[in-house]
Amino acid sequence: MAEKQLKNRVCIIGSGNWGSAIAKIVGRNAARLPNFEDRVTMWVYEEIIEGKKLTEIINETHENIKYLPGHKLPENVVAIPDVVEAAKDADLLIFVVPHQFVRTLCSTLLGKIKPTAAALSLIKGFDIAEGGGIDLISHIITRCLKIPCAVLMGANIASEVADEKFCETTIGCRDVLLAPMMRDIIQTEYFRVVVVDDEDAVEICGALKNIVAVGAGFVDGLGFGDNTKAAVIRLGLMEMIKFVDVFYPGSKLSTFFESCGVADLITTCYGGRNRRVAEAFVKTGRSIKELEDEMLNGQKLQGPITAEEVNHMLANKNMENKFPLFTAVFRICRGELKPSDFIDCIRSHPEHMKQPTPKCSL
Ligand SMILES: NC(=O)C1=CN([C@@H]2O[C@H](COP(=O)(O)OP(=O)(O)OC[C@H]3O[C@@H](n4cnc5c(N)ncnc54)[C@H](O)[C@@H]3O)[C@@H](O)[C@H]2O)C=CC1
Ligand SMILES: O=C(CO)COP(=O)(O)O
User: Fold this and answer.
1) Which percentage of the chain shows pLDDT scores above 70?
2) Helices (H), ranges, the chain
3) Entry pTM
4) Which is the most buried residue in 52, 121, 136, 271, by most CB within 10 A?
5) Which value does ipTM take for this structure?
6) Which of 4, 112, 146, 209 is catalytic?
7) Ligand 1 center from residue 325 Cα (angstroms)
8) Would the CB of 259 count as within 6 Å of ligand 2?
9) Does pLDDT of 331 surpass 60?
10) Could you tell me which residues come within 8 angstroms of residue 52 by beta carbon, excluding any fewer than 6 positions away?
């Protein structure tokens, strides 16, 4: 009789900047925890670097020299170029690819994974849905692969996490049986996890903050100061809250005060790639695509495409004027508005038209 498998097998789908940083944590936890199989598979989108395959480099040197140079990955993390081979035996699939690649990956994996597997998505972004709306990435994974999908989002700039500098993160997971397994494989002394059940709001925070970070980069590029950036962060936060309120009613305001909310917004508006490239866009007048290719060495920006996806929905619902900051970021990235128009947008933001509500005099 076949021995019952007691240990969970983990596969990380993605090996970019964040994928590699999380592999360091997951690999170490899997080797340490009795309920996980030591060996962790990591799907690597194969590329040739100085004549050698990236998977071979990772397996021989235990370093992703392209996306996370200078950090050793645990030896039990095994790089695999075939996603089906990497994922087929896994009980937990950790998705961490730039969001534009998730649909193709899911269709490749369809019918090839364990039906009892669960997923955790670290992907920040949306996709365009049929009928003029947007899809959450975790919903796409669940629908395509027919497995539950929780999310992990937080103030987690990958290089700082890889340096083991203290930070927090948020797991959004409604399933009380899966949540402890997800937390155990992720949590360390320096990477503290809070689990909440407000899955959709956690994920939406992670996607929308990248649009706000592009706006923060614009004001940096225009030479404005920290007060202006704080205004962008505040107005961006108000639009994020409104977005969730309008399109995903029933979510909790408290979620915005977790790491996935205000903390991720702040760190990305100061230290993220979206901010950096948006600043260069204003200063050089070159296209976002050119700057992304030149400045990020293969890493991918999520903010400008997320702004486009959100605008697709807002325009369809005739609601662009209700989210002027998101709309202005989209139009500036497209070249339809000048970066300096961003200041007019935040100056005349509807948040400034609010009237105080009179107190009841009883
Ligand atoms: N880097 C960071 O600090 C953080 C990133 N995230 C999120 O994690 C997700 C993944 O980001 P990163 O790991 O930083 O990726 P990255 O920005 O480093 O992207 C590069 C990755 O995309 C892969 N790739 C290129 N072309 C591909 C294709 N056609 N199909 C599939 N993969 C392809 C590359 O091989 C590489 O692994 C994103 O949604 C991002 O917003 C979340 C928190 C922190
Ligand atoms: O999501 C991030 C930090 O939590 C990283 O943001 P960037 O993609 O702008 O670098």
Assistant:
1) 98
2) 17-32, 54-61, 83-87, 102-109, 137-145, 158-162, 179-186, 199-221, 226-247, 264-271, 273-284, 288-296, 303-316, 324-333, 341-347
3) 0.97
4) 121
5) 0.99
6) 209
7) 25
8) no
9) yes
10) none
